[in-house]
Amino acid sequence: MPRITLEAARINAKLTQRQLAEILEISVGTVNNWENGKSEPSLSQLRKISELSGIPMDFIFVPEKSN
Fold first, then answer.
1. Which pLDDT score is estimated for 1?
2. In the predicted structure, residue 66 carries a pLDDT above the cut 60
3. Is 31 left (phi over 0), alpha (psi -120 to 50) or beta?
4. Rounded to whole angstroms, how far apart are CA atoms 6 and 1?
5. By the 8 A CB rule, do 27 and 5 touch?
6. CA distances, 6 to each of 1, 18, 24, 25 (Å)
């Protein structure tokens, strides 16, 4: 299985940024920052995203942090 971006995993789970934020009890801005490589989810958050999307955690990646 190829590596998949966090954004693609969210879309695979059929969730908007707002819906994912509500499920994880975080802000939409946090989800946006993850998808733009400005920050990364915690291990427990990544585990939940993996469960929601059906994509193994090892295959989900966050873009490199942008300067």
1. 64
2. no
3. alpha
4. 15
5. no
6. 15, 14, 14, 17
41 three-class SS:
coil
Other CB atoms within a 10 A radius of the CB of residue 34 amount to: 24
For tokens 């695979």, name the residue. 12
Which tokens go with 62? 């966050």
Tokens 């193994």, located at residue:
56
Q: Among residues 57, 54, 10, which one has the least CA distance to residue 30?
A: 10
Q: Which amino acid is at 59?
A: F
Q: What is the mean pLDDT of the chain?
A: 92
